[in-house]
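User: Hi! I'm working on a homework problem where we have to compare a predicted structure to a textbook description. Could you give me the structure for the chain below?
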Amino acid sequence: MKLLPLIIALLLVSSCNVNEKLGFTEKTRIPVQNNNPSHCQKWQSGEVVTITESTTIPKGCNYDKVSFLIKSSNIVFDCNKSILNGLGKTKRNSPVVPSPYKRGDDPVVVAFNIVGSENNLIQDITVKNCDLRYYVNGFNVSLSLNKTTHDDLKNNRNVTALENHLRTLSPKNIRIENTQITGSHKAGIFVQRYINGLTIDKTNIVSAGDIGVYLESGTQNITISNSSFSKNGETTYDIKKRLRKLRVRKREAIAVDSSSHNKIINNRFIDNAGGAIFIYKNCYERYKEAEQLPRYQQSNFNTIQNNLFKDERRGVWIASRQDRDLDNFDCGDPLVFEDKNEKYYEDFAKYTRILNNTFEDVKEAIIVEDDNSTISGNTFKGESERDIRIGTRIRTKILNRPVTGTTVENNTFNSNAEPHVLIKFDSKNNTFNNNTPPVSISDSTRS
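Assistant: Happy to help. Predicted structure tokens:
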């Protein structure tokens, strides 16, 4: 018993030393804009700047805790490589020994808030050449809904026509280009409901807490290209408590949640906490809360092409919540199966195309838990437990609908996985063509 206080003291000293070494104990700085050259815009720490015309930040001008609101059309905002820091200090609080930020020193909610509404169609907006650090979210792109619309969606009134109409009203031709987003406390880029046609290009997202890019319900035709994602999904952040802590269940670089017809091409995914790309339909989480809305659209017809996946736990997971216990999600969707404290809901992610990617040292490269996926022209190499896994447990057992219609063709299997393809839970109507080495159903079903 006498040793216990000494052990605790040593752990606390060790923790303090680590925090100090990493800069987590750094005191609040004087805002850098106080020392900007005289030709810089005079934005102040804590200010929300409304942008109504194209703007370029002069070189050498940096800002702390400044947020930008864009709700007008025909705008190019060029950061010109300026550093925009969402914190009053240069490092985030440690999630290892969590302590809340001091009030007033917590991160700004968003760097760029691009907002349209049903009564204000905005279009042709580009934000480029930014270096964003430590905001809660780097970007939020959204369509503000009228109360009547919200109520109609909540109550499932004429939803198909309404959602199609909302996508015509959403912000159009929004581009995020050549930007670095580091250390977001939640999302690097949050693409809200019904955004249609947004492009993210040549953008690097590193160490976002919750997620790199989140594609919300009803979004379509999002292109994510020529970008990189690394070390995202390790932590979570409670805005009300101003507290950052480690995640129990790690998150992915890109969440495709009730989002369809998207293209994720020519990107790099390296060492993200939970995995690279998870495709699923939200089960209408926290449905009793007034602001929450059902997810009607499935995550179908998404294309993942010409990407590099390296050192990931999972590469692409199709219908990633099909076999997941969602008891604590408070779901409003129809319940498929309940057992003691476990609840399962059907997930939807059909007609996914995974084409010409490279998976290197990925523990599970591709997991397929919904129908009619095409896996073609990919290369699997390095250390791997499984290159492709096809099948889902709960839907097969309870609804008697195993995964069907997966095509696996023209792939090269050079990893050490054995077998390269595993078929489980009676998955049916799979097609294997021209793989190297050849993969057959009999080979795939070996455990």
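For your comparison, note the following. Helices lie at 3-22, 147-154, 159-169, 393-399, 441-444. The CA atoms of residues 74 and 124 lie 5 Å apart. Good luck with the assignment!
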